[in-house]
Amino acid sequence: MQKLPKRKYVNHIQVDWSYEDMIKGFDLPKSPPDLERFDQAYFFTEGNHIIQGFLYVHEGKPVVIPEPEPSILYYANSQRVLYEILNFRTDIFNSLGLENAAKIDLLFSDFFLSSFNFIINLFASIEAFNNSVIPEDFTYRHKKQLMNRDKIQRYARFDLKMENIVPEIFGKSFVADYPAQYEFLKTLKGIRDNLIHTKNFSKNWAASYHDIYRELLSFKYDDALKSTKEYMNYYKSNWIENH
């Protein structure tokens, strides 16, 4: 199994001074911070790195938590279940015949749950990445509407972000340079939509969801993971970076 990607943090920078040098001559507060005024925290790590965090009050005491990049966490969640998805599918295909229906029932239930987690997390990774790269003062005109960052994140369609907005931000286009991979990511979105908005395609009285089940059985999970990594690393070099 491939190692999970290296974690990254929001506003991660390196400085040429140390924490000890910075606090010299200061009397540090001993009481808990006022979260109405201070809701962020910053960590000094090895090698004079600073990472952003946030404060959370638990039972009256502040807990300081580093703020990770969600797109990498979502991607790691998908990668984590890839191996078991492929194993479950192999076991299903090796259990052919009506006499093994009970065994396949258990295998397929486990396969479906792992596949669901994979698809949802991988698509969420792309969405989180797209939203994270929008500058605070960026605007985009779509038809007659001028959209700021908040409106883009809330209302812009997946294809509009992928084909127009993100390429405008970076001055280059993954969609134009890698059209086949983009088509694959659109397939990922289609399956994700079918899972989130599960529809009953019934005939007569019997409910049926076999179309989405068949899609999951034939989906190329390893290729989806690879295409997603290539997409994010195209815009930010080594964004998905293995240890």
Give a written overview of the molecule.
With 243 residues, this protein is α+β, with helices and mostly antiparallel strands. The model has no long low-confidence stretch (mean pLDDT 85). The protein has helices spanning 19-22, 70-93, 101-132, 149-155, 158-170, 174-177, 179-196, 210-218, 221-235; strands spanning 13-14, 40-45, 49-58, 61-66, 139-142, 145-148. The strands form two sheets. Strands 1, 2, 3 and 4 form a four-stranded antiparallel sheet that branches. The radius of gyration is 23 Å and the shape is globular. 18% of the residues are buried.
Q: What's the helix-strand series?
A: EHEEEHHEEHHHHHH
Main beta sheet strand tally, sense and closure: 4 strands, antiparallel
Number of beta strands:
6
Which descriptor suits the 3D outline?
globular
Strand proportion, as a percent range, falls in 5-15%
Structural class by sheet pairing and helices: alpha+beta
Mean pLDDT: 85
Helix content: 40-55%
Cα distance spanning the termini: 13 Å
The unreliable regions are none
CA-atom Rg in angstroms: 23 Å
Count of DSSP helices?
9
Features of this protein?
13% strand; 4-stranded antiparallel sheet; two-stranded antiparallel ribbon; 243 residues; alpha+beta; 52% helix; globular
Summarize, please:
With 243 residues, the chain is α+β, with helices and mostly antiparallel strands. It has helices at residues 19-22, 70-93, 101-132, 149-155, 158-170, 174-177, 179-196, 210-218, 221-235; strands at residues 13-14, 40-45, 49-58, 61-66, 139-142, 145-148. Strand 3 (49-58) and strand 4 form a beta hairpin.
